[in-house]
Specification:
The complex is a heterotetramer, with two copies of chain A and two copies of chain B. By secondary structure, chain A is an alpha/beta fold. Chain A contains twelve helices and 14 strands. In chain A, β2, α2 and β3 form a beta-alpha-beta unit. Chain B is an alpha/beta fold. Chain B has twelve helices and eight strands. The chains are: A alpha/beta, B alpha/beta. Bound molecules: thiamine diphosphate (TPP) (2 copies) and magnesium ion (2 copies).
Chain lengths: ~350, ~325, ~350, ~325
C-alpha cells in the first residue's frame, strides 16, 4: 500500500530550492538569514550544509542594492533566488524591481533576460501590525514584465517554485506566512507546474469561488460547509496573477453563473477588481451574479480585537454566498473554531 | 553626582525589570504581538536620555522599549499597547513595534529597519527651521547602518548642520547574522560619518556613566551650535532577537562571547560599583526593586482591566 | 466686458504653490531642482525669489531619505510639498510612502497626522522610453491612508493643489507632463476644490465616458467628434482616485447605460478595473454596456513607431465607442492631427 | 607610448565629433529622444577603457555615449537607436538612455540615477564566482553618489572583495544643481570609500594620459587580486544637461568657471601637447578628422536608411 508523502509548505519550498540547486549550479540563494538557524521560516534550513558557501548568501539589510546585485547576476547567467521575510521590506527595492528587472529584457530589445525569483512573504496574525502584514500583490501584478505567482498548497509551492526558478523572467513568488505551516501531499521527485494560470481545486456547479494564497484555504473550508448544505461549489485558484489567464474561470462561470472572488489583499484596486472586470467583459450577454471580498481597506491593526475584522473569514464568506444564492446556510458546530483569529493553529504563538 | 548615578541605576533597573516582566508574562498569550526586548542594552537609552528635555525628541526602531521608557514614555500605556487595548499608547493599533508618546517626546518607533532615521532627521530639520534649542536623538542598530537611507540621512544632516544625534547600538547581530556576514572588517561607522563631515564618538555601550557624561557634552554642544554627531555604542542583547526567551542554544553566538558580555552586564557591573563605592546600599536597592515591582504590577493590572477597541475603530483614523 | 484669465496648467500649479506659501508659513517646497532655472517644468519657477531660502529647498538625489525628511517635517507641524520630475523616481521612496506616510496617522492611534503632498509627474512622448513614461497611479491608489489626486485642467490643478496642501493627509498629486502645457481659465484668487470625487465635465445622455489626467483631454476632443455625429456623451473626470467616490458615476450611468473607461495607465490591474468592478456591483438589475481601454500592457518603448500604439488615441477611442453604440461614426478631417504622436503640440520638442 | 597617446587622442576626438554631430542633427527632429551628451567628459571613458578587454564589462547611466563608444560599442547601432530604428542597439525600444552592446561589454545604461551601480556590482560578483580575471567598471556622476544604493553597493563590494572599479565623474552639477546644494563641503568620496575598506584615487578628470596610466595599474591590480577601487575624476560638461545645446545663458555656472574649464578641455589641451611634442602632426590630425567624419556620415546614413520596428514589436519581448 502506497502512503502519500505529506510534508509542510515550508518543507516543500525547501525541497524545491534544494532540488533546483542540485540540478542547476547557476541557482544561487540570497537574502537576510538564508543561512541562519531560522532559515527563513524553515524554507532555507540546512541549504548551507548541502551546498557550498558561495551558493547560499546571507545579505546585509540593503534590500535595494541586493535586488540590483541579483539583476547583475541574472543578466550574466546566474539564477538568483532572493527572499524577503516580509513583503514590506521589498518596498525598498521597488525601483530595481519595477524600473529595471521587469523591463530589462524588453528595453534591451530582447537581448538580456533576467531570470530571477523574488520570494515575498506575507505576514499575518499575532499582532504583526500595519507594517508586517500587508499583501500588496497588485503592486507587482500591474507591471508588465513581471510574473506573479501565489501558490496555496505544498504541492503548488514546490512545483511552482521549481518552475519559477527555471523561468527566464523575474518572478515574484508570494508565500503566505500561514501557509508555511500547512501540510499536504508533495512528491519527492523534482516536478514543475507551469505558470499558466488558474487551477481547478474542486469541481461544482452552483457557484464559482475564486481565490488565491491563504484565502484559498479558507475558501476550501467554506466548501465543506457548503457541501453540508448541498451546495456544490467550484473552486478556482488563480495561482498566477500575472500574466493573468482567465479562460478557465470563464468556463467555470459559464456553468455556475454565480461568482464570489475572495481577494487575499485589500479589496480596493485589488486583484479582485481585475477579475471582476474581466468577467463582465466576457459575460456581456449572459447574466451572472458576482461579488467580491478582500481585506478591509485600512492598515491592519495589531490588536486582535480589530484585526479579526480585517480579514474575510469562513463566516463572512458564507454570508456573502448566502446573499448570492439567496438562501440561508447552516454552519455546523465543528467549523466554529476555538482558536483565536490571530493564530492559524494552536502551534502558532508568534512572536513573529 | 551620586544622585545622578543612582538615577541612572534606577532607570536601568526599572527597564530591566519591566522587560523581564514582559518576558515572564508573555506565555499567558495576552501580549499578542512580536516583542524585541532590550535586556542588556539599557545603558545607551538611560545614559543619553538623562540629558534630554521633554521637548527633545527621539525616534527608534523595533527594539524600542528601553528608549520609550527612558525618555519618559508612559508605562501603563505601553503595557496596555502590548495587550492590544484601547488605552494603549497607539490605541492598540500598533503593538510593541509602534510605541509612541508624543507628550514625552517619543515621536515614533517602527519595525522597518532604518526607516525612522530620515524621519528623525526631518524632525531635527524642523527644530532648526524653528530656531529652537532642541535636539533629536535617533536610535538604531548595527544592521540599520546597512540601509542606504542611513547614508542619505547622514549626508543631509551634515549639509544642513542639523541638531541631531545618531546613536548606533551595535550589538553585533542583525537577528542571527553576525557583523562578519554583513559588513567589511575595515568598515568603520565613525569614519563613515567623518567622510561626510560629521564628527563621531565611540563609547562602550554598557558603561552608563560614561555614556551619560560624554553624551551630556555632545548634546549640549549640539544645542549650542546645531550640527549632527554620531555615537557608536558596542553592546549585547541578552535574549533572543524577537520574543521572550533566551536563544543561546542556537549557537549563533559562542559561549565565550556570551559569557564575556554577560559578565559585562551594564546593570550588574554598575550595581557592583555603586555598592562598593557606597553610593548605594542594599536597603536602597531593595526599595528600588519594590518600587519598580509595584509599578509593574499596577501597569499589568491597568492593561488587563482596560477594554479592547470596538470594531468600529478598525475603519477610524485612516484619514485625519 | 470681463475677459477670462487664461493660463497654463504649469502656471496654475505655480500659483497654487505661491498662494499656499503666502497663506501658510508652514508650507515648504522641496525637491530636485525646485530652485533652479527650469523650476520643475516651470511649476516652481521664481518661488525662490518670492520666498525666503528656508522655504524652497533643492534636494540631493536621495529620494528615499527626503521623503522621510518630509514625513518628519509633517508630523512636527510643517506642510511639505515634495516633487519628483518623473513618477519613476518616487519608486525609490515606496517604503516611506507605503509603510510610513500612509499609515502613520492610523498606527499612532490617530495622534500624528502627516500633512504632506507628493507631486509625481508622469512623462510622455519624445522617446522618453520605458523608465520615464510610466503612469503607476494604481500603486498608490491601492493603499489606504493615501489620497490620490489627478487634475486634468489648469482650473483643477490650482484648486486641487491648494486643497491637497491644506489636507491633513499624505496626498499623491499626479501631474501629467503634457498637461503642463495646456491652457485654461484659472481665477487669480486663492480657491480650492474639495477632494471628493468625480467631476462632471460635459453633460450628455448617450454614453458616459470616464477618464482622468491627460487621457481625459483626449476624451474631451472625442466628445466633439461625437457631437458632430449627434452622439451626446457625458464625460466624468475621476480626479480623485483614492478614496474613490462612485456615486456621481453611478448616476450618470443610470441615465446612459453605456460606459467607456479610458485609463491613463496600464489597463491590466488598472484604475479602470476598479471602476469596472464598482459599476457592476451597482448595476445588478439593470443591464449596462461597459468597455475599458488603457495603455498597452508593455513597457513603453522609446521609438515613436511603437509608442504611438501604446496609448489610446482619439481614433481608438472612437472605435471602441462605435462598438458600444453599434454605430459607425465619422471623424472630420480637422481632427486628424498632423502633429506626430510623440508631441502634444508643435512646441514640444523634448528633449525631456 | 606614442601610439597609445595617439589612440587616446583619436578616441576622444571621435567621441567629441560624434556627439557634435548628434547635437548638429538634433534639430531635424529625427532623433526623437532625450540625449545627455558627453562633450567635455571624454577623458575618463577613453583613458579607462584603453585598459579594458572585451570581456571586461561596463555599466553606465544617462550620460553614456562616451562610455559606450570608448568601450567599443557599435556606432551604427547607437545612431540607429537614437533614431528609433529596429537596427538600433536596443531595437529602438530604449533610445539614447538605454544603450547596450553585449558583444562589446557594454552591459547597460539606464537613466535612473544610481540604478546601475548595484547591477554592476552584481556583474562583478559573478566574475568572482566564476573565478575569472575580469573587471566591471561602473560609471556614474557626482549626483549618483547621493543615492543610498551607492553606499550599499560600496559596502557589499568591500565585504566580498569584488573586482569592480567605481568611477565617479564629478562634473560638479546634477542638472542645474551645484554640489553646494547637495553635499556638505567636507564630504569626500574617497574617504567614504575608505571608511568601508575600499581604497580610492582622485585624478584630474580631463587628463586622459594620467587617467590611462593610473587606471592601468588599478585595473591590473584588481584583476590580479580582486577588490574594489573608487576613482574620482573632476570634470566639466560643455553642453546643457539634456539636449543638444549650450545653456550657459542660464547662468547657473559662472562665466569664469566656464572659461576655466573650457580652457582645460581634455581634447584641446591634449592636442596642443601632442602637436608640441611632435607626437602628432597637422596632417595626421586632418586624417583623423576625415576618418571620423566619414564614419559618422555612414552611421547617420545607416540610421536613416534603417526601418522602424513594426507595430507587432510593441508586445514582443515583454517576457523571455
Ligand atoms: C527593511 C527591513 N529589513 C529586514 C527586516 C527584518 N529585521 C527585523 S529586526 C532586524 C535586525 C536589525 O538589526 P539591527 O539594526 O542591528 O537591530 P537589533 O535587532 O540588533 O537591535 C531585521 C533584519 C526589517 N524589519 N526591515
Ligand atoms: C532617481 C533619479 N532621480 C532624479 C533623476 C533626474 N536626473 C536625471 S539626470 C540627473 C543628474 C544626475 O547628476 P549626476 O549623477 O552628477 O550626472 P550628470 O548628469 O552630471 O552626468 C538627474 C537628477 C533621475 N533620472 N533619477
Ligand atoms: Mg544589531
Ligand atoms: Mg554631475
Amino acid at each position: 500500500m502506497l502512503k502519500k508523502r505529506i510534508i509542510t509548505f515550508a518543507d516543500a519550498i525547501n525541497e524545491a530550492l534544494s532540488q533546483s540547486m542540485q540540478k542547476d549550479k547557476n541557482v544561487i540563494i540570497m537574502g537576510l538569514g538564508v543561512d541562519d538557524p531560522g532559515g527563513v521560516f524553515g524554507t532555507t534550513k540546512d541549504l548551507i550544509k548541502k551546498f557550498p558557501k558561495d551558493r547560499v548568501f546571507d545579505m546585509p539589510t540593503s534590500e535595494n542594492a541586493f535586488t540590483g546585485f541579483a539583476i547583475g547576476l541574472a543578466i550574466s547567467g546566474k539564477k538568483p533566488v532572493i527572499s524577503h521575510q516580509r513583503v514590506e521590506f521589498s518596498l525598498l527595492s521597488m525601483e530595481q524591481i519595477i524600473n529595471q528587472a521587469s523591463k530589462w529584457f524588453y528595453m534591451s530589445g530582447g537581448q538580456a533576460p533576467v531570470p530571477m525569483v523574488i520570494r515575498l512573504i506575507i505576514g499575518r496574525g499575532w499582532g504583526q501590525g500595519p507594517q508586517h502584514s500587508q499583501s500588496l500583490e497588485v503592486l507587482f501584478s500591474h507591471i508588465p514584465g513581471l510574473k506573479v505567482v501565489c501558490p496555496s498548497t505544498p504541492f503548488e509551492a514546490k512545483g511552482m517554485l521549481i518552475e519559477s526558478i527555471k523561468d527566464k523572467n523575474p518572478v515574484i513568488f508570494f508565500e503566505h506566512r500561514w501557509l508555511h505551516l500547512t501540510k499536504g501531499f508533495v512528491p519527492k521527485k523534482m516536478y514543475s507546474i507551469p505558470l499558466n494560470g488558474p487551477r481547478l481545486m474542486k469541481k461544482g456547479s452552483d457557484i464559482t469561488i475564486i481565490s488565491f494564497s491563504y484565502m484559498l484555504i479558507e475558501c476550501l473550508t467554506v466548501c465543506k460547509i457548503l457541501s453540508d448544505n448541498n451546495v456544490k461549489a467550484e473552486v478556482m485558484n488563480i495561482s498566477v496573477l500575472n500574466p493573468l489567464s482567465i479562460k478557465k474561470i470563464i468556463n467555470s462561470v459559464k456553468k455556475t453563473k454565480r461568482v464570489l472572488i475572495v481577494d487575499n489583499g485589500w479589496k480596493n484596486y485589488g486583484i479582485g477588481s481585475e477579475i471582476f472586470a474581466r468577467l463582465f467583459e466576457n459575460f456581456t450577454k449572459t447574466k451572472i451574479t458576482c461579488e467580491r471580498m478582500g481585506i478591509a481597506d485600512s492598515p491592519i491593526p495589531s490588536t486582535i480585537s480589530l484585526s479579526k475584522h480585517s480579514y474575510p473569514t469562513k463566516f463572512t464568506i458564507i454570508k456573502k454566498i448566502e446573499k448570492i444564492l439567496k438562501k440561508k446556510l447552516i454552519i455546523k458546530q465543528k467549523y466554529i473554531s476555538k482558536i483565536p483569529s490571530d493564530q492559524p493553529d494552536k502551534s502558532f504563538l508568534g512572536p513573529f | 553626582m551620586d544622585k545622578i548615578k543612582k538615577k541612572l541605576f534606577f532607570n536601568m533597573l526599572r527597564i530591566r525589570n519591566i522587560e523581564q516582566a514582559i518576558s515572564d508574562n508573555y506565555k499567558f498569550q495576552k501580549m499578542r504581538c512580536p516583542v524585541h526586548l532590550s535586556v542588556g542594552q539599557e545603558a545607551p537609552a538611560v545614559g543619553i536620555m538623562q540629558n534630554l528635555k521633554k521637548e527633545d525628541k527621539i525616534v527608534t526602531a523595533h527594539r524600542s522599549h528601553a528608549h520609550y521608557l527612558a525618555k519618559g514614555g508612559n508605562l501603563n500605556s505601553m503595557i496596555a499597547e502590548l495587550h492590544g487595548k484601547s488605552s494603549g499608547c497607539a490605541k492598540g493599533k500598533g503593538g510593541s513595534m509602534h510605541l509612541i508618546d508624543l507628550k514625552a517626546g517619543v515621536s515614533a518607533a517602527v519595525p522597518i529597519v532604518g526607516s525612522t532615521i530620515p524621519i528623525g532627521v526631518g524632525l531635527s530639520w524642523n527644530i532648526k527651521l524653528k530656531k529652537k534649542k532642541n535636539v533629536v536623538v535617533i536610535f538604531f542598530g548595527d544592521g540599520a547602518t546597512e540601509e542606504g537611507v542611513f547614508q542619505e540621512s547622514l549626508d543631509f544632516a551634515s549639509l544642513h548642520s542639523l541638531p541631531v544625534l545618531f546613536v548606533c547600538e551595535n550589538n553585533h547581530f542583525s537577528v542571527y547574522s553576525p557583523l562578519s556576514n554583513r559588513q567589511a572588517k575595515k568598515r568603520d561607522i565613525i569614519k563613515i560619518a567623518k567622510a561626510v563631515g560629521i564628527s563621531g564618538t565611540k563609547i562602550h555601550g554598557n558603561d552608563v556613566l560614561n555614556i551619560y557624561k560624554k553624551s551630556k557634552k555632545i548634546i549640549s554642544d549640539i544645542k549650542q551650535d546645531p550640527k549632527p554627531h554620531v555615537l557608536l555604542l558596542d553592546t549585547f542583547r541578552h535574549l533572543e532577537h524577537c520574543g521572550p526567551n533566551n536563544d543561546n542554544h542556537l549557537n549563533y553566538r559562542s559561549d565565550d562571547y556570551i559569557k564575556k558580555w554577560l559578565d559585562n552586564c551594564p546593570i550588574k557591573t554598575f550595581k557592583k560599583k555603586l555598592l562598593k563605592n557606597k553610593v548605594l546600599n542594599i536597603l536602597e536597592l531593595k526599595n528600588y526593586e519594590n518600587k519598580i515591582s509595584h509599578e509593574i504590577k499596577l501597569a499589568f493590572k491597568y492593561a488587563r482591566n482596560s477594554k479592547f477597541p470596538k470594531k468600529k475603530f478598525l475603519l477610524k483614523n485612516i484619514y485625519a
